[in-house]
Amino acid sequence: MFIIIGYIIVIAATATAFTMAGGNVLLLWHNSEAIAIVGITCGMLLVSAPMDVLKRTMRAVFGVLKGAGPKRDDYLDLMKVLYEMFMLGRRNGLLALDEHVSAPESSSIFQNYPNFLADEEKVIFLCSALRPIIDGKIKPDQLEPLLKAEIDAKKNTAHGPINVLHLVGDSLPGIGIVAAVMGIILTMSVIDQGPAVIGYKISAALSGTFYGIFGAYGFVNPICNMIEFGNEAEENYYICMSRAIGAFARGLAPIMAVELARRSLEAGLVPNADDLENILKSSGGK
Hints:
The chain is mostly helical. The chain has one domain (about 30-280). Helix content is about 80%, strand content about 0%. The chain has helices spanning about 1-20, 30-50, 50-65, 70-90, 100, 115-120, 120-135, 140-190, 195-250, 255-265, 275-280. Helix 2 runs antiparallel to helix 8 (about 140-190), helix 3 (about 50-65) packs across helix 8 (about 140-190) and helix 8 packs antiparallel against helix 9 (about 195-250).
């Protein structure tokens, strides 16, 4: 929501300033320059990145516009899921977790937290992290490096759209200049048609530079920065989960394993230790 508001402010401030200076905002729009910039940018994108990266870039942009990313309630759900799973494993043995890990969609624990269950990637991460513990195929001190490697892989994958958007943001001013130069070349071909025609052609050419700079610094670079913050939040979510699972694998009590995860998060995302303990103990894992 704030991103949309920010974009509206950028457009409104630009249009207002231009109007206050005596201009007509319609003078800023020239179809030929816009088509040149959009077309060159799209062609550049097709050359610069694999299709799967471009698809992830589109998903990342739409995700940020919709306000994607873990919120306070998402972390609370995670803490509750972890606590219930850990308590079940502590009471009934690790094999009791097998039915939940093998079929999370039918798990009585996961079904209590539909928002968590709906995020397939996070559910898979949790289940695949618990599976080696249940099977006894790995020592507790070997688990966290394994999870870190998986988180690093996710981080590298998530950075693809950032690289694409950085390229667009860095290139748009230059693409705007290319469009402007084409406009100047066209102007030179009609220089004998009088000041009115020449003035219109030059204004159209300059609008290309305007579109490139305005698009880069007003739209692409800010949303790229926001996606980076979102990626960091996603990474912290997985780190929080991995630390709790690693602590449980090492033998920490469920409440302490979740507390360790809580301490890895910034203040404001989760309650304080006492409040979280009360919330967890009043959940289904008590």
